[in-house]
Amino acid sequence: MGRQPCCDKLSVKKGPWTGEEDKKLINFILSNGQCCWRAVPKLAGLLRCGKSCRLRWTNYLRPDLKRGLLTEAEEQVVIDLHARLGNRWSKIAARLPGRTDNEIKNHWNTHIKKKLTKMGIDPATHELINKPSTITTTTTKSQQIPSAIQLDHQPEQVKTEESHATTSEENSSSSPTKNCSGAESGSSSDNNRDDDPLMNFLWENFDTPFLDASWDFPAAAGKTINNVTMLSWEENCAWLLDRQDFGVEEFGSGCLYDVDMGMNINMLDRGEKF
DNA sequence: AATACGGACAACCGCATCCCG
DNA sequence: ACGGGATGCGGTTGTCCGTAT
């Protein structure tokens, strides 16, 4: 027997969300919280698949999302984490507060991949592309690009070999995705915390998301936790309900800001429900 | 001015994993 | 321990918009 479809595909709307739909979804989650996504569309009066509602919320409507391009620092973290984790975007996103896996994935595919390729680095393996042409060797420590690649500062050897940088995609058959996916290697990548200072720092200090404040906004409202002033749930989301047009500039400031870390804070534990 | 093209990003699809009875 | 439903995740596609011709 086959798997049941997540929803009746004939009766659900697809394609871009309208402002009205966004409002309905926001209103519903404001009053009921995140629970049972399958039931959300029905209860919220939406002709959408529950999955679609979840994606819309997590990728676009969540009040803690940062908008706009990733900063250079964020890009650097993405590159470092990708070198270690492969295409495990959700793991990477978990360490970038206010960023979603989808956003990071898109940014990787449209920006970072190109940058790395241009620099002569295979984005899939994080190795220099100017390897001896005939021999395909297993990755060695010496071939690995230092994780703290500065995108604007090409290594000297990379510059000289840039003309060879055109076949990176084709050479990426042994991608970190394959290496990291599944049980066979996923844990090993986690355990394999080598001497990369940045990565060690990230792993040691942020095994949980950088800051993982609770969904329990009403209780936390007005309090200062770790130098973060918690706004009420209503305060956090009021701006959303006022929006007819969710322009990028409207999202510029996160609803929480960590004074010490100088970044917006992920208020949501995505796995948590209330 | 019209059309083609390409980049960026939102959204969908299907499989994997988790969780609970 | 097992089965089935719910959710999460990553890959892929679709759509919009800016730029080039």
**Low-confidence segments:** 133-143, 152-201, 206-236, 241-274
Which H/E pattern describes the elements?
Answer: HHHHHHEEHHHHHEEHEE
Gap from first CA to last CA: 34 Å
* Structure summary, number of beta strands: 6
- Which sheet architecture does the biggest sheet show? 2 strands, antiparallel
Mean pLDDT: 60
Continuous helix count: 12
Residues in helices, as a percent range: 40-55%
Structural class category: mainly alpha
**Radius of gyration from CA coordinates:** 21 Å
Question: Which shape, going by the Cα principal axes?
Answer: elongated
What strand order characterises the main sheet?
A: 1-2
Report strand %.
under 5%
Question: How many distinct folded domains?
Answer: 3
Domain HTH myb-type: 9-61, 62-116
InterPro entries: Homeodomain-like_sf, Myb_dom, Myb_TF_plants, SANT/Myb
Subcellular location: Nucleus
Region (Disordered): 123-196
Q: Any overview of this molecule?
A:
It is a single chain. This protein has helices at 19-32, 40-44, 50-61, 72-85, 89-94, 101-118, 156-160, 176-180, 183-191, 197-205, 217-220, 233-242, and strands spanning 121-122, 127-128, 224-225, 228-229, 257-258, 263-264. It has a two-stranded antiparallel ribbon with strand order 1-2. A two-stranded antiparallel ribbon has the order 3-4. The chain contains twelve helices and six strands. α1 (19-32) runs antiparallel to α12 (233-242). The chain starts with 18 loop residues before the first helix and ends in a 10-residue tail after the last strand. With 274 residues, it is mostly helical. It folds into three domains: 19-61, Arc Repressor Mutant, subunit A (Orthogonal Bundle), CATH 1.10.10; 72-205, no CATH class; 217-264, no CATH class.
